[in-house]
Please model this.
Amino acid sequence: MSVFLHGLSTALPEYCLDQTEVEQRAGLIFGDKYPQFHRLSGSFRSAGINTRHSVVPLDWFSESHGWADRNDAFIKGATALFCDAARSALQASGWSAQSVDCVVTVCSTGIATPSLEAQVHKEMGFRDDIMRVPVFGLGCAGGVSGLSLAQSIAAGRAGFRVLLVVVETCSVSFRADRLQKADVIAAVLFGDGAAAACLSDERPDTRQLVRLGQGVQKLWPDTLQIMGWDIDETGFGVVFDRSIPDFVTAGFAEATHAALESSGLIHGQIDRYICHPGGAKVVAAIETALGLEAGSLDKERDILRDAGNMSAPTVMFVLKAVLDAGRAGQFMACALGPGFTASYLPIRVETEQGT
Model:
């Protein structure tokens, strides 16, 4: 059974943070109490990021925050992003909220119980019998894994309409109390954003036909320490190991080959990889690992430059940029996240001209 993408949207919060201003603010926060900051501060200029967006203003980061106000900021910001992204995806699909049978919500940067889709149920106008599938803990792999999960649900029931919403508010987990390199690198890279997609087995009447295949994952044993959260009384603390680019260079090609083989594909059949741009070094490492021409992952770098690493939704921003540019052919979406896990999804794009 084929599953089609009917609509894809992205959303950013209201506060746009210039990277130069973020570096200056980080210097004020870290400079006097973390001597290593000045050695690390060059990362702000070499990260390939000009701007990011945040659910909280820049002044928020100079204040002290605990679990309660961090999570309050998460719920307020994430629900607004959820609605913005979901409404745009529904509009692009020609669907109403009432026509959605299932909503899959992917998020790893805050806790809400009831979960986000329940928080916005009335505002969105969902039916009272809608199936809710909230997913936590996928981190940066959540965009591809979320699309894979939504694809599987849509493939399992004829005519079933699935709305996927992926939302992250990385900014509210900013920590200045631990004085760790990972916290400085997080301040360099991460921003907030959301993306949404509408999927079903109903063939849409569009010039650009997007088919989603079955997702594939690879989890490396004994790698729990590479990426994730440490959790304490103050909130989430990022775990972001310096070995990630080297790990990608060493292991990503083999994992990608296995994912392609599982999907009945080979590397030479892929017209475009759709990658999560974790950072400038990671993008370069992916190009090296996959034998791609240097600079070929241009949309990944564009999204990183304008919005930073938003964790899970970032790869969906890349997919939208590639589709908006009119690209067609056989794609493979891929992302790395906590586990340590690689997530893959084959995507076939056809146009009226035929591809």
Notes: The longest strand covers residues 341-350. The two ends are 20 Å apart (CA to CA). The domain at 3-200 is CATH 3.40.47.10 (Peroxisomal Thiolase; Chain A, domain 1). The mean pLDDT is 92.
